[in-house]
Write a structure and sequence with these properties.
Layout lengths: L1 E10 L7 E8 L15 E9 L7 H39 L10
Antiparallel strand pairs: 1-2, 1-3
Length: 106
Amino acid sequence: MKIFIRQYLTPSSVDDSGYSIYATTNTIKHNPKYAYDPDDWVFLCEEEVEVADPEFDVREMILKGLEGQKEKLMADYSKAMMEVEDKISKLTALEMLPEGQEGEGA
């Protein structure tokens, strides 16, 4: 598969020079003045590179990440629900006290 690597000089406050190098990839060749290039970026170069197609299924990696996210959300949800149920239980228990016992022992 052919990809094109583009490099730009961009304004930056990270180092003393005030600039940094930004690289991006695409599967289509760059136009001389690409419509989405910010005005303050300086186009440096573009190289065409041939890369082998990945030997792994990207979807499988994404699905594993999503499954992990799902498990964390479910655990967070279960914890939050237990806290709410505990509060409901405590408030309900207060309503169940027989009349006259609320103030006894005080």
